[in-house]
Amino acid sequence: MASDATPTAIEWYPAKLLQSRETAPAFALVVLNQPLRNGANLRRLWRNSSIRVAADGGANRLKDLSSFEGKFSNLQVIIGDLDSLNPSVRDFYTSQPTPAQIIHDSSQYSTDFGKAIKHVRDKYPTGIDIVALGGIGGRVDQGLSQLHHLYLFQQDRTYGDGRIFLLSGSSLTFLLKAGSHRIQVREDGEEAVFGKHVGIIPLKGSRAGSRPRGSSGT
Asked: What residues make up the domain containing 213?
């Protein structure tokens, strides 16, 4: 006999990534080789993250914003095939009080983004979330590749290996697997860090439905 029980919804609280450090969950920050802005989101993510990794040329982007003494200098890892990493940037991050680890991975079967995700998954606690800074931006093929990585590295239906978020200048993108989800943009009394627009785009399967409350669905 089929059960009539309503499936438990998977809860999402993405705003906590950008709120106070006390309420933010543990997560790793991966900086991609995309243009960065020294804005509030970057400063908050840098402050709240417990692990900071640059995917190859992402370190160059970060260094461009590190002209202020000490800002964004405590990078822990630079990983990739390193064909984009500037020698001066490498010297900068390896000469810090806590030097960044440089990992050369020459594999042509994985992107620098994929190498960064795999490093975090292999090295750090199981289930830690990852925020990729750069998100859906740049060339179309790069954007599609980043969406592919959401599928590739989130095989578990309940996100047991951790969730992955793609943050760009104007949006936060994440993968909703088949099933029921509840996305809490903010709670009463909390600082608003996102606008009121939510977009749901079906990329696999026949249909997707939503019932937005207190937001504009698109």
From this structure: 186-218
